[in-house]
Amino acid sequence: MLEGNYENKYESRGIFSKHFVGSFLKSLDYLIKVVENEILSINEIGCGEGYLTRHIRRNFQGELRGCDYSKNIIQRARELSRGQDILFYQKSIYKLGGQDRADMLVCCEVLEHLECPEEALSRLAETADRYVILSVPREPVWRMLNMIRMKYTRHLGNTPGHLQHWSRGRFIKFIEDRLEIVSESSPFPWIMMLCRKRKKG
Known about the structure:
- Helices cover about 30% and strands about 25% of the residues.
- The chain is α/β, with parallel strands linked by helices.
- The protein has one domain: Rossmann fold (3-Layer(aba) Sandwich).
- The protein has a 7-stranded mixed beta sheet with strand order 3-2-1-4-5-7-6, sandwiched between helices.
- It starts with 14 loop residues before the first helix and ends with a strand.
């Protein structure tokens, strides 16, 4: 996995980027609100510098944590989030276990960077007590937009570090092997799903 993002899309000043990110955040807020009465704790897996975690804190008063595999990134998240009652700690998505459990796990813009997304999804499904929110770039739209803005043209628009590529249909099929899809609020150009932990038996 690569450490950090090539572009800080969440804080971009470009008019189109701000519009897209605003839609992304509204979709995240909406999906959390759908089940807000059922969740007392949230853990963001692959939280990076904690931008989404801090955004979640604005409307969520329960226990809030975030983890990432990078020690340096977690240190930066702690620095940026002082006084916001968020626990950040170092953890690989492949190593999730009982101590990482929460009513809801949020995993946005992570799976496309992984060599073994199936293993990561299994860990998320096992660790979540109730729900998981997942998001990935919608392909091939993502690469097409990069080409239009003349980004990563030598890689045919593929963002460096993106190892996996999902259309909406392929992503649904990927998820449904391990989680039940409850709701979708996919902001262009992403796919975002609220999923429920499947009951055993």
